[in-house]
Write a structure and sequence with these properties.
Layout: E1 2-5, E2 10-13, H1 14-31, H2 36-45, H3 50-74, H4 80-107, H5 110-141, E3 163-166, E4 171-174, H6 175-192, H7 197-206, H8 212-237, H9 243-264, H10 269-292
Antiparallel strand pairs: 1-2, 3-4
Helix pairs in contact: 1-3, 1-9, 2-3, 3-8, 3-9, 4-6, 4-8, 5-10, 6-8, 7-8
InterPro entries: TM_pro_TauE-like, TSUP/Inactive_protease-like
Organism: Rhizobium alvei
Transmembrane segments: 12-45, 85-106, 112-131, 171-200, 206-229, 241-261, 273-293
């Protein structure tokens, strides 16, 4: 069954879109990521224009993140104070990111830049995460103790000023790296349509030394508000949010996110990170192939879409 998307100006199979939303929602709840790094490329693969895919993909991130964050809040695995500090940086970063998005679109380079950014970012992050996860799994197989936070051991982040105590996470940390992390993720949310969880989750664990049990919920909390802000401003500024597409993605994403949270609790942290790394690498490779492999039809006067 086909449905017409008014902003994207093409017809799509509604069941394929529902499947995309459900898949991304499930992964969002399972890994604690917004899922924008996956839904945006999937929409681009399905011939949705990149500008529409970025802005609308951020909308789907909101729905799945809300669903997952509520579950973590009920279970006490969400640090609202830490998430609020991340949010301050995220809103500032999203504001700058929307300006960059508009500038690139005016120059006619938005589609290429989005694809290149995705390939570079996903390949780098995925490779680093996979390397660390494999090492962690090897240590676990040898029954070695894996500790992310050792007594008396601090890195340069913990020597910065303007410290704040986050009781839920049991850390005493400067707000500077927290706001900076949120700022960077905010830019990515606006420019690439990602929630940024695939960067925020490992950064909170390895850089900020936040306990793993509160990282996922706190990441989703921040993603909700930054993605909402980005979506609203994108709709007002660039008119690139397709509400019909967003609604279909949200319907399936919210339901699937609950099942993702349950599935994630059955796997060890090292296994979750390894699976997420493989997923990130797979998306990056697929985008790279689209960039470097010549198309079957070099010239076309028609706009791609689903029949």
């Amino acid at each position: 069954m086909s449905i017409y998307l008014p902003i994207a100006e093409l017809s799509v199979n509604i069941f394929i879109i529902l499947g995309m939303g459900a898949t991304v929602g499930f992964l969002s709840g399972m890994f604690g990521v917004g899922g924008g790094f996956l839904i945006t490329p999937l929409l681009i693969f399905y011939n949705v224009p990149p500008a529409i895919a970025v802005a609308t993909g951020a909308n789907q991130v909101i729905a799945s993140s809300i669903s997952g964050a509520i579950t973590h809040f009920r279970r006490g695995s969400l640090d609202v104070k830490l998430g609020s500090v991340l949010l301050v940086g995220g809103l500032l970063g999203a504001t700058l990111g929307i300006w960059i998005f508009s500038a690139l679109r005016a120059l006619g380079q938005l589609d290429l830049i989005i694809s290149l950014l995705y390939v570079a970012l996903l390949s780098t992050v995925g490779s680093l995460m996979l390397w660390e996860s494999v090492n962690a799994l090897r240590r676990a197989a040898r029954n070695e103790t894996i500790s992310f936070k050792r007594t008396g051991q601090h890195n340069w982040v913990h020597r910065l000023p303007f410290k704040m105590r986050f009781k839920k996470s049991r850390i005493y940390l400067s707000v500077i790296p927290v706001v900076t992390l949120g700022f960077g993720v905010g830019i990515l949310t606006a420019v690439m349509g990602v929630g940024g969880g695939f960067i925020m989750v490992p950064a909170m664990i390895y850089l900020l030394r936040v306990p793993a049990n509160v990282v996922v919920g706190t990441s989703l909390f921040q993603i909700i508000f930054v993605s909402t802000y980005s979506t609203i401003i994108q709709a007002i500024t660039n008119h690139s949010v397709d509400i019909v597409l967003a609604f279909i993605l949200m319907m399936s994403g919210v339901v699937a996110a609950q099942y993702g949270v349950r599935a994630g609790q059955k796997l060890r942290a090292e296994q979750l990170r390894a699976l997420l790394a493989l997923l990130i690498l797979a998306v990056g490779v697929r985008l790279a192939l689209d960039l470097f492999i010549p198309p079957t039809e070099i010239y076309s006067i028609a706009r791609g879409g689903a029949e």
